[in-house]
What we know:
This protein is an all-beta fold and 546 residues long. It folds into two domains: 1-31, no CATH class; 32-533, Methanol Dehydrogenase, Chain A.
Amino acid sequence: MHKRAVVVVFWITATVLTVFLGEGLQRVLTTPPPSTVQVLTYHNDNARTGQNLEEKILTRANVNAKTFGKLGFLTTDGLVDAEPLYVSNVTVSGHARNAVFVATEHDFVYAFDAETMTQLWRVTMLAPGEIPSDDRRCGQVTPEIGVTATPVIALREGRGVMYVVAMSKDKVGNYFHRLHALDIASGAELPGSPVTVQATFPNLHGVTTFDAKQYKERASLLLLDGIVYTSWASHCDEGDYTGWIIGYHAETLKQTHVLNLTPNGSAGAIWMSGAGPAADSQGNIYILDGNGTFDEKLDSCDMPVNGDFGNAFLKLSVQAGKLRVTDYFNTHDTQAQSGRDEDLGSGGALVLPDLHDDSGRTWQLAVGAGKDRRIYVVDRNDMGKFTHKKNARIYQEIDHMLAGPVFSMPAYFNNTVYFASVNDTMKAFSISNAKLVPTPTSKSSAHFAYPGATPSISANGSADAIVWAVEAHGSEAGILHAYDAGNLANELYSSSGKAHSRDAFSDNKFITPMIANGRVFVGTLTGVAVFGLLPQDKNQPKPPGI
């Protein structure tokens, strides 16, 4: 007969937790101090900068293979395509926790204790008798489609609410998308949740109708001015689809806005490799949509006469209670780009902070790139619209600096924009005179194969800035890189180095690392790999989960 395992917990200091398991097995976890860090949305903020400027634990000095590595693994049922989210000091079952939230393609949402890595709750997004959607004969999200888009969290009046879009199908083959509102303390559905996504939009023939089986919610959710915005992608280029954006009131889940970007044409879907629609402080939304119909015949305001905006860098605003396209940029060769499937919609948009040129003029800009390997910087107050002359009215265009197409989005920190395109190094473009300097100031030694990488930034204010990125490396093996943000040639850490056997994890595409309170969270095929500072007592065994 085996002796029953006894667990005894001793608090040795404020930062070290020692646990004795069974017959003397001892494990030590470094527990971060109380945190105020919140990662409530994709890439940290609505501008989609990717910055966490409250990272006080990870520094350029301690992020290395000796002191930093994989601490454990958050096991889930289903692939993790959505970026994990993080909330400090959530009260769960009467105890304050730093919690990380994970959504999966098997239609589950989880909460884990970010320090102990124990599961706090798990809930399904499926209605009785349903299963996750099949992949709709498209290899972009496979073998099943459940929760693909990164959710968004609202903190208000002492309550946290997570908004999640989930796809499913029933026994007779009907497909559904539902928007859920979950209490982050328990995972419970809030009153009125979920709502089924349904929509129509007027066109020249009457209306066009949202058909659930034609779409997936790939781009991350946006919470702006009390509205949860969903945006819809196709399954590859299969079927009769168009570009939908649908908004819901965050309190009531009542549908508030419906916009179709190609109502009298086709295609123009929004997926941006998982990046979310970006927003500025004035309440405007910025997206890049995919190849599709663009009406080159323009009205007196230089807007497409039939309202078709395929393959465009778009600015959306709520005017007179309706969501509308209020400005845009289309390339001079937009029709040819769409025909070659070289659209802008593979990349995400980034809203830059206000910039000042040498004359003191203030510029409000956004930046994005897609499959044509060009970086586009638009003036958010005059995006350039369309002309047959070679992009004559755009604020700035940079050619020949990206080696491959962009299936990701950039990050911003300290007057620098970071890109990692396909089959290219990561490159840092500094900003001078309110424009990107075309020649990179630094670049990584590592090359990023398909799909490139979306970098994330951790820093303590302006100090100890680190650029994090996940490299797809084939054979389902991923590599986590950490670079000095001031010089990408200075690689601080790689999980493929001497610590590969300790730090290995399975790869998943379009993964954006999330950094919070001394931990780095990386989505994988079976859960989330958790990295952080390792126990430094060499006599101690590896941390849990390794």
